Amino acid sequence: MTLLLLAAALEVAGPVSLSVRTYGADVEVAPGPRLSVSVSGRPDVRPSIRALGGNRYEAEFDGKRQLHEGALRVEVPAGSAIDVSTVLGRVSIAGVGGPARVRGMSGAVRVAGGAEVDVETVDGGIEVDDASGKVRIHTTSGVSAVSATALGEIELETASGAASFRGACGARCRIDVDSVSGEVHFALAPGSAFSASLITTSGHVRDTLGLSLHGREAWTEGRFHGGDGAIECETFSGDIVFGAR
Amino acid sequence: MSRCPPREQVDDFALHGGELASHVASCPRCAARAGWVQREAEVVRKWAAQDDAAVAELWGGVQSRIRAARRRWWLAGGVAVAAAAALAVVFLRPARETEATESATLAIESAEVQYRRAAEVLEVEAEARARTPEQRTAIAQARRSLVRARSAGAHDAAARIRVLEGYAAYLRSLRRALRDGQ
Question: Which helix (H) or strand (E) holds B56?
Answer without folding.
Answer: helix B55-58
